[in-house]
Amino acid sequence: MKFFCDPKTLMHSISIVQKAVSSKSTLPILKGIYLEAFDKNLRLVGTDMEIGIDHIMGANIIEEGSIVVDARLFSEIIRRLPDSEVEVSLQNNNQLLIKCASTEFNILSYNSSEFPELPEIEEEQTHEISQELFKSMIRQTVFATAQDEARPILTGVLMEIEDDTLNMVALDGYRVALRKGKIEAHLNNKVVIPGKTLNEVNRIIGGEEDEKVQISLTNNHALFTVGNTKLISRLLEGEFINYKQILPKEFKSRIKVNAKHLLDSIERASLLGKEGRNNLVKFIITDENMIINSNSELGNVHEEIKIELEGEDLQIAFNSKYFIDALKVIDDETVYLEFTTNLSPGIIKPITNDNTIYLVLPVRLASY
Amino acid sequence: MKFFCDPKTLMHSISIVQKAVSSKSTLPILKGIYLEAFDKNLRLVGTDMEIGIDHIMGANIIEEGSIVVDARLFSEIIRRLPDSEVEVSLQNNNQLLIKCASTEFNILSYNSSEFPELPEIEEEQTHEISQELFKSMIRQTVFATAQDEARPILTGVLMEIEDDTLNMVALDGYRVALRKGKIEAHLNNKVVIPGKTLNEVNRIIGGEEDEKVQISLTNNHALFTVGNTKLISRLLEGEFINYKQILPKEFKSRIKVNAKHLLDSIERASLLGKEGRNNLVKFIITDENMIINSNSELGNVHEEIKIELEGEDLQIAFNSKYFIDALKVIDDETVYLEFTTNLSPGIIKPITNDNTIYLVLPVRLASY
């Protein structure tokens, strides 16, 4: 194997696949990046056996071939090379020679035959979605996945394809995030993608409005294709919770409020609720006015926000974190908060559409 | 106590004094910021009993007085206030009321009489030095202080005032950093300032070329005055090593080399020397050419740099970290490296002056 390329381009490619490389694996080869020189291309692959990333870049190939090289060392070397064409070639003794200007590295390489192959995914039946839309759908749901592994299925995001609509849903037992978006679908389908996978997909997507992400699904795997990069992930097994049953159909109080003002107020109120007691903040909702209270042994805080109330007055308390997380990812200026009683879930959603819905369970207070 | 002020200005002042506040103290009052409203000013003081920072800002004082408030909570509150004038006032129940737009905080405060007083320093006999110069002198020496407390005196920087020259010296047993600069001195003096103190002084100094830092020294303390901010620190006790004896008076080989190229090459070479063996890099110096080698079980690296050699060829090895640290803070484009034998210290210095000198001890190699 021997090729020439620009070190900056190579570094960019390494940084794409490196995120899938396991730094903690006990198998040295899994700490490596697979390099394959073929035609006029260099393929780079990294995998931790859960996620695999495959990226192709242009290179001046002198001799085809493939090897595996330690990801961390390779990336540190390439990052620090002078700004001049780099030559990478496999030597007789299985060492990889990296030559650039008057710098020469010889580093250990592994035989590529020991590198695990990524699963083959049929790419004929793919769904297509705008990069920009998919990026925002990930951002607006993945934060609500469960962080602990007690119920593994909840660490993932449900992707439910119904005709030309993609529903993405995450929930952790205390809240639900639902985001609907338009997809060019091939077949209806329903899979649960690990949250970690979607974070990596999000990182790879440039976010161009006109560019597409191709999504191919099998029984066990999902393949996301973004330009020259393919990300393959296993799916989470098990039945996802029937989220549609959880979403309330009606409300007794509906508030219209500026999302940024509400976020700022809850963030300030949460400063005093931090130490234990579930980051508790209390909403006292009356006509045209919402008071947000929080108190702890450190002191108390009182916030007032202008609102438009439709329906009944209400006092209700929440874990501030769940409201903050949702308000941070809502792009709309104004939102509705919908409540039924102070013991039933609250809803946060944009006033302009039903594409985004956040549900948060309240905290029962000793006295109101 | 009661005052009005701009929350952004207050936040800036808090961030200045907060660095001296001990976050780990078992005494709650030392986790606090002392606030004193007087005349048209608000004074803020933070101290961990080693360093004290005293800062004065303008404020609209309604009622004079002083209290102490938890630094972390106070700064988090002020940082998140709306962009509107804030009112701060002490209530009857010893609670501090913070009011801004429709936000109201009531937080616990401490009696200011329990707050430790900073030592009084006579400010009549002060030295003056340019902010810009002092900032660069700190940056170019403090990194070479010892990081472990085995010999506490080496965790500080010697400040030696000799007529109109300030010599700043740091050493840790493996290297020396010496920087000379012009000072308007009052009296010759010699003190050792904790490295941590100088890092804080560096942070406070804006670096304006025309502005000065005032330095007042007593037997036990140093006072640095930068505009409205005073930083008081204890001095380190003990005798500093006689660094003048350590600096070699002559050399057998002198190399002229581009500092950036040398730094880049040593940084690349150090990638392979990292795992154990003291980050060893080897210099092979011959006429017009210097080869930098490093190797480990991961592989080897070979770098070549153009140099101008005056004197004898030499092979010598160093801990790359010490060379990298020094080359990173040298502002000059070209440096001299001076060597005598491969067992005696190497010198790094700018070619234009003797104001900056770095000494590094070599590592003895088994074979050359």
Describe the structure.
The structure is a homodimer of 368-residue chains. In chain A, α1 (7-18) packs antiparallel against α2 (71-79), α3 packs antiparallel against α4 (195-204) and α6 (259-273) packs antiparallel against α7 (320-329). Chain A is built from 7 helices and 27 strands. Chain A is of the alpha+beta class and 368 residues long. The first copy, chain A, has 3 domains: 2-114, Roll (DNA Polymerase III, Chain A, domain 2), CATH 3.10.150; 127-244, DNA Polymerase III, Chain A, domain 2, CATH 3.10.150.10; 248-360, DNA Polymerase III, Chain A, domain 2 (Roll), CATH 3.10.150. In chain A, β12 and β13 (165-171) form a beta hairpin. Chain A is elongated. Chain A starts with a strand and ends in an 8-residue tail after the last strand. The mean pLDDT of chain A is 94. Chain A has helices at 7-18, 71-79, 131-139, 195-204, 243-246, 259-273, 320-329, and strands spanning 2-5, 32-38, 41-47, 51-58, 60-63, 65-70, 86-90, 95-100, 103-108, 110-111, 127-130, 156-162, 165-171, 175-182, 189-194, 212-217, 221-226, 229-234, 253-258, 280-286, 289-296, 299-306, 308-311, 314-319, 334-339, 346-350, 356-360. In chain A, the strands form 4 sheets. Chain A has a 9-stranded antiparallel beta sheet with strand order 10-6-2-3-4-18-17-16-11. In chain A, strands 15-12-13-14-27-26-25-19-23 form a 9-stranded antiparallel beta sheet. A 5-stranded antiparallel beta sheet of chain A has the order 5-1-7-8-9. At the A-B interface, α2, β9, α6 and β22 of A face α2, β9, α6 and β22 of B. Chains A, B: Residues 244-364 form the DNA polymerase III beta sliding clamp C-terminal domain. Chains A, B: Pfam families: DNA_pol3_beta (PF00712), DNA_pol3_beta_2 (PF02767), DNA_pol3_beta_3 (PF02768). Chains A, B: Residues 128-240 form the DNA polymerase III beta sliding clamp central domain. Chains A, B: It is found in: Cytoplasm.
